[in-house]
Amino acid sequence: MADVVVDLNAVIVAVTREVPRCLTVQRDARTLGSPAGDEGTVEALVFGPLDPVGDRTLDLQLRGFVRQQTGLELGYVDQLYTFGDRNRGPAGSRVVSIAYLALVREAEPSGEARWRDWYRFFPWEDWRSGRPAMLDEAVLPAVAPWVAAAPSPALTRQRRERADIAFGLGGAPWDGERVLDRYELLYEMGLVAEARRDRPAGDFPVPEPVAGLGRPMALDHRRILATALGRLRGKIRYRPVVFELLPSVFTLLQLQRVVEALAGVGLHKQNFRRLVEKGGLVEGTGRKNSDTGGRPAELFRFRREVLRERPAPGVGLPSARPA
């Protein structure tokens, strides 16, 4: 019988100078029990083993090992998902990971932890400068042969529908929250490095991974990160989580840039401001920020009373500005 190992994973997110960033560490691939294709060190999320006799709650344990490994104190923490597929650890073990999403204001971590732009792992998700060229150059040309390779008409239709919904094809809109769906399709099509490394069995041959489709991560950590990005994009619509990533006072432009960084789209300035002010999310401080390089901008703060006034006080996403 395989041993069952439980660990806790932390997707720690900050936004600094309009760059959405996540905290990663370097780990030895063989120590992690990665597939044979992983050699040397690999980039991983911050994680640690569950101590069954340690802190009373998983939340406290998570905060403790993050503090120990990185020197950071976590504020907002949300349980994300439980991951337990086979081949996630050393042979003979079944590793179950309970993943959490944590939002912080960036600070210098201790040890070997480093902040990374999360679009280095998912470059096809950043539409702030328009539609990423790699979609048309590398991803979409692989869809048709993958669909055609299905062994039955029913599976052909299923694959076609999945691709259309995930990548906004066949009249379907692009849905920014479907980050995990897109990554899993790229994995199944063999376009990301993890697919080649894991050597999945199946009816579709695994080609060489496509250059430019993001940096690989240890085990299934890029899948965990994709889950967190999709969750966070959904949450900003109905929860005021974006303010966890901002200083106590901020300009409306700073707020907009953080939302754009998380959502991966550019937004109409006036539409965004109307949406925020109409929703009662912020209030003016009567102070100005003179460090803008131009006309001083008014400083605002999060208006906490909105939590009592509305059941879903998120920022929402107005229409994107033209690329």
How does the major sheet shape up?
A: 6 strands, mixed
Number of beta strands: 8
Report the total helices.
10
Q: What number of domains?
A: 3
Q: Within the CATH hierarchy, at the fold level, what is the topology of the largest domain?
A: Nucleoside Triphosphate Pyrophosphohydrolase
Percent of residues in helices comes to 25-40%
Rg result: 21 Å
What is the CATH homology-level superfamily of the largest domain? Nucleoside Triphosphate Pyrophosphohydrolase
Question: End-to-end distance, in Å?
Answer: 55 Å
What overall geometry do the principal axes of the alpha carbons give?
A: globular
SSE sequence, one letter per element: EEHEHEEEHHHHHHHEEH
Structural class: alpha+beta
Overall pLDDT level: 87
Ranges with pLDDT <50 over ≥5 residues?
A: none
CATH class of the largest domain: Alpha Beta
Secondary structure layout:
Elements lengths: L2 E14 L2 E10 H4 L8 E9 L8 H13 L5 E8 L9 E11 L10 E4 L15 H16 L4 H15 L11 H10 L4 H6 L22 H18 L13 H12 L5 H10 L3 E8 L7 E6 L3 H4 L14
Parallel strand pairs: 1-5
Antiparallel strand pairs: 1-2, 1-3, 2-3, 2-6, 4-5, 7-8
Helix pairs in contact: 3-4, 4-5, 5-7
Structural notes for this entry:
By secondary structure, the chain is α+β, with helices and mostly antiparallel strands. The protein has three domains: 3-120, Nucleoside Triphosphate Pyrophosphohydrolase, CATH 3.90.79.10; 123-198, no CATH class; 239-309, Winged helix-like DNA-binding domain superfamily/Winged helix DNA-binding domain (Arc Repressor Mutant, subunit A, Orthogonal Bundle). It is 33% helix and 22% strand. It has ten helices and eight strands. It has helices at residues 29-32, 58-70, 133-148, 153-167, 179-188, 193-198, 221-238, 252-263, 269-278, 306-309; strands at residues 3-16, 19-28, 41-49, 76-83, 93-103, 114-117, 282-289, 297-302. Strands 1, 2, 3, 4, 5 and 6 form a six-stranded mixed sheet that branches. Strands 7-8 form a two-stranded antiparallel ribbon. A hairpin with a 7-residue loop joins strand 7 and strand 8. The chain is globular, with a radius of gyration of 21 Å. The protein starts with a strand and ends in a 14-residue tail after the last helix.
